[in-house]
Amino acid sequence: MFKTTQAMLGSTIINHRQHVGLQKLSALAGITHSSLGPNKKYKFIQDDRSGESALVCSCFRILENLELTCAVGQLVYRTVQTHQKVYHTGSGCLLFLAGAWSRVALECLQRGISVAHIISAMSEGLDVCFDVCRRFSISTERAQSQSSTASSQDLGLQVSKKPTVEGSQSSTEPKEKARDALKTLNACGQRKIRLSRHFSEAKSENISKESEDSQPKPPDIKYISERLSHGCVDAMNLVFEASRTQSNNIQQETSCPTFDITKVMTCVLPGLPEEHACVTPGCILLLSAEQASLAHCLKDRLLKVVLINGDLSFNYSHLGFKRPTGIQRVSEEAALSSSSKEEDWMEKVVTLLLNLEVNLILVSGLVSEKVIQRCSWRHILALEKVNVSILKALADASGAVPVTYATQLSKYCVGTGVKVAVWRDLSSYERKPSIAVNVSTGVNSKLVTVVLTSCIEGKLQALEDQFWACAYRLHLALKEKAVLPGAGVTEMLCIQHLQKRAERNSSQQTKRAALANPYRSVVLHLMADGLMDYLSTVMVNTGEFSKVQAWTAVSQQLQDCNQSPGAPSMFSEVFLEAEQEGRAVSFPVKSTDAPSTKVFDNLSVKQEAWRKASDLVFLVLQTDAEVITGIDLKTEAAQGNLMLL
Amino acid sequence: MSRFVRKAPSVCTDRPLNNSDVSTKLRSLKQLLTSCLGPTGRLKHVQNNIGGHVVTTSSSSVLLTSVTSSQPIIDLISSSILHHVSRFSDCGLFAAVLCLSLIQEAKQSGVSRQVNKHLLSLCTSYLQHEHCGCRVPVDLSSTQDLITLSLSVVSSKPACVLTEAEALHVSRLAVRAFLLTVPCGGPGPVTLGRTLSVGVEGASVLHSEVFPGLLVEVRDVFCLRTAETLRSDPLRVVLFSTSLAGDLCELGDGIIQVHPGVDTDSQILDQLLELCECVIRDGVKLFVCQKVVHPVLQQYLRRHGVMVMERVGLSLMEPLALLTGALPVATLHATIPAKAYGTVKEVSVKEFGSKTMLHLEPAGESAICTMTLCHRNETMLSELKVVCQQTEHVLRLTLKEPSALLGGGCTETHLAAHIRHQSVQEVAESASALGCSQTEYLLGVEGFCRSLEAVAAALHHDGGDSFMDLTHAHHWTRPADAMTENMEDNSALCCGCGMVQSGPTVDMKWTHLNTEHPEFSPAALLKDRAVQPRVLDSFTAKLNALQVAVETANLVLDVRFVIQDTN
Question: What are the TM regions of this chain, as residue ranges (chain B) (predicted)?
Fold first, then answer.
């Protein structure tokens, strides 16, 4: 394997045991170490040329601000971008593991293991990890708050429903039996429920009583969201509020708690302290001071609304329309000036709006100053720069049909029942006076706005990112109806299983298996070390541990668990306690105390991040050359490391 | 004051192959392409010099299109390979590596081009001969061979980063898509349909699917409401290829003079509305336009329960016309004839990841299908798309010539062994016919066969050894880190294509590739074996690749002067 830089014109051969691409990947991952885990640290990124700087917190924002141009950098950025777009969380984990596993690949190359063997063994390792995720995932229906008695009953139901479980109903030691039962479930490859405290609470009479009740319980959003906050407690509280507001607004018989992320929007307000962040039903839009008095007039009335998808101005024409250039106007008299034409148009639009008795116009594009003024005189409030998704939501709720030109409007396009309320006067915080209004469609609308505030303007983006990360974590958990034990427990289990698999290999190595891949156990061990590195880095980021302490603590826990047989579920969560309770952790927690799961992770986010990390490593590992196109012979031929074609 | 720069004289290179610059570049090109070959081939990042978008690939079609050289000889080779790839999709790297090896061998031995040509004809006649030992018939009545064929193509591109299950899923999809493009029965000439592919980034490969009909992406979220109300069966469709934006797009650079009171825009709009009225009167339910439709028209049509799809793009127009049977309307100035309307059976909304698509199902029989390809990242998705197109092409070629060649390097080694054997048998006649000495002829044969074997050996990139068995002349490998030194000690292995298996009961001898061994006639495999080949290559593509490689090599060897205009 060679690492050659092969251009349209060039290349050099670098010692293959030091794969440059993998080194780059590992170095890139190193940048984001401190943004891992619940205790994130802010970073300044400064551009020396322009003097501009950005305050960033998440891995994705760091990459976004770095403007990476090298091939590996581009690959990493694209991958993280795709992940972020879909999941909004987990990018740090993705990049860290890409770095950790690229070091695994490098180590293997240095030991002389072939690329094909590295890839086959790492794929197997990944399968082991996914298997762990599948087996140890927790159903959200079962993940209920400890205080509710329903949880133990539920669990009884779970156990007794399974035909594979025998004798557990008559057992006097439900805890033991339940665990046995779960082992059986594992063997069948079914999803394992792994909340040991429920077992200890389970009463045998509950079990038989509840088994007839087959109605699935709605998930306890409060309980789940708290455990998915990952240190962003404030942001998660807002998410929970948003979910509660949505549920309250839907006045249906089955008031099932819901969370519809498509109907959530954020509004950032600089200048206010962070405690002012809140959740309101409806959508919050900012207005200029001139429109403020009009908004006051219109408040508490049910208004007719029209929606315009485009700009509201005389000169606007729809996308794809080209103004003809070759038109000459031939006339005997003096032609109408364009300003009078605009006047005609404006008159026509305003008359139309008045005839339709419209008091509110929501426009996705811009509204010209003149139109705003003219409308204000006639008590019509025109709001610009409204997101298209909000237009859609309001169209659905009010029955309005969005149009492109105001002249298209007819009575079929008008929506009804929209309310405008003055939400807050922001004149004291902003330099130019403005107010925020709340546009809502009353009951049965799930639209909620989360207002995020901060005195430091540079922090707002990080706050918004954190909010969306939490929102998506909850959304995904409810969608998948399953979560993983968090705070490193899943990783611990993966390490344990990877090591087990590796040892099984080396002990029972048949001739054939050895022939197929003699280095499998080495690679699996190294992969497990990558996960150890991940865990210890998260612990270091809590500020309570040095790297060495963290590593020792993790391996100590692993050893303890390996020594007590039959208790794979006994890992305690140590990494987030310090953060949540605001004090030093009592580590190591004895693995014999039945731990309660205080933190959850998302199943798909974790799996996808791992999968994408391994994709990156595989792509870079298998690459031995870069082809650079369009090199200028005269200026760049001097570069020694290019092989010219 | 103008200044004249004297034209630089043209540069003439005599015997370009002896030029050190040319040979260095040929070597780098060979190294670049050889390292890409096969399922364990190495990938290349392709990027421009300002650090733009990265493509990670190992396919010759992507790689060679981005490589241009200052040496015309390199461009000559790359363009002839690209031409082969554009016609046959498969075996581009095989052709390139073989061609470059042949050039290298012939440069060393100095053998006449006639020998290569003669050997090529020996190869083609053997491959087409009914007793050919490396060709297998493809059974079109079962999907087994077709799946093996497509799996061989799919797994030969590691830049897709597929697991075994994913690779199998994609190859099955490719076969299903291919079968959907074959029209059922009917007399007369059969025309194959088309497979379109839509890429969805971010989803798992296992979510990829094939649908009969067309999937068209919708960007306008507001148009979906009408999709649910369309119920009549079948739905009448009109297809416009002209812009309905309401501007004077046909004007070009011309000038028109109008009265100041005349509003051209509203006049055009009136004309368009008249057209729409007529379309609605004719009972059209689906209104498709390649370009922009004026929002007023859209609103008007929607009010009358017509679904509007605008900006579908040129590439979808032909499949849309095929699917619906509609004739694209290119003018606004004539009434639409009844025969210009087409039909679809059903329109439904489908969601894939972040994409919302409309699924148009054909009313009658139609050989058009859409493949939605999902992958986790952009560069892997683009390689997957290339691979799926390649697979479709290979399967189509198989329909014309229902046979395949054994893959995994076995065809190359087998062919080399056969050519060696046959040449030794007929050395006297051949040498005199070609007008060269017997030694020269045998030297040429050796070079030719070594080149073939070099392609087989190039399938391995981890430093393993290549072997050939002395019975069937199939290709075997022993990994570099294998425990045993001799092939004989490795129990229960099988050859590259999976047709020959070694075991304690089978008495078999091996030799290193490219080492001296007594020539022998390779035995054909028994026809009624239970063993199925694991790797198959397209017969048509490989045969053509062989011809392209030899002829390109001969052409390059024939070049005496290169004259370049340096201005």
Answer: none
Question: Distance (Å, rounded) from C-alpha A528 to C-alpha A532?
Answer: 6
Neighbour count for residue B517 (Cβ, 10 Å)? 15
Dihedrals φ, ψ of A8, to 5°? -55, -30
pLDDT tens per residue, range B429-457: 888 888 888 888 988 999 999 999 999 98
Model ipTM? Answer: 0.88
Would you say the CATH fold of B234-253+260-349 matches that of B11-124+408-479+493-564? no
pTM for this model (two decimals): 0.84
Strands A415-425 and A434-440, how do they pair? antiparallel
Cβ distance of A322 and B53 shorter than 8 Å: no
- Domain segments of chain B as ranges: 11-124+408-479+493-564, 234-253+260-349
Partner-chain residue, chosen from A85, A402, A643, that has the shortest CB–CB distance to B222: A402
Q: How far is CA A122 from the centre of its chain?
A: 26
Distance set, CA B368 to CA A89, A192, B184, B212, B281 (Å)? 39, 45, 12, 6, 29
Which residues 314-353 on chain A approach chain B with CB closer than 8 angstroms? 318-324, 326-331, 333, 335-336
* Percent of chain B that is helix, strand, coil (3-state, to 5): 45, 20, 35
Residues within 8 A of B (CB atoms), A 198-257 only: none
Reported residue count of chain B is 567
What whole-number distance in Å separates Cα of residue A368 and Cα of residue A375?
11
Fold of B234-253+260-349: GroEL (3.50.7)
CATH number of B11-124+408-479+493-564: 1.10.560.10
Nearest chain B alpha carbon to A117: B462
pLDDT of residue A181: 37
CA atoms within 13 A on the CB side of B161: 29
- The CATH code of domain A263-317+339-482 reads 3.50.7.10
Listed in sequence order, the residues at least 6 apart from A215 whose beta carbon sits closer than 8 Å to its beta carbon are: none
Taking the C-alpha atoms of residue B38 and residue B93, their distance in angstroms, rounded to an integer, is: 9
Q: Which of A70, A403, A630 sits opposite B299 (nearest CB)?
A: A403
Q: Among 1.20.58.100, 1.20.1540.10, 1.10.560.10, 3.40.47.10, name the CATH number for the domain at A2-205+484-640.
A: 1.10.560.10
Q: Which chain B residues in 267-306 lie under 8 Å from chain A, judged by CB atoms? A: 291-292, 294-296, 299, 303
- The letter for the amino acid at B307 is M
Residue A497, Cα to own-chain centre: how many angstroms? 28
In this structure, are residues B445 and B119 in contact, taking their beta carbons and an 8 Å threshold?
yes
pLDDT at A214 over 60: no
Q: One-letter amino acid identity for A422?
A: V
Chain B positions touching A623 (Cβ under 8 A) are 42-45, 56
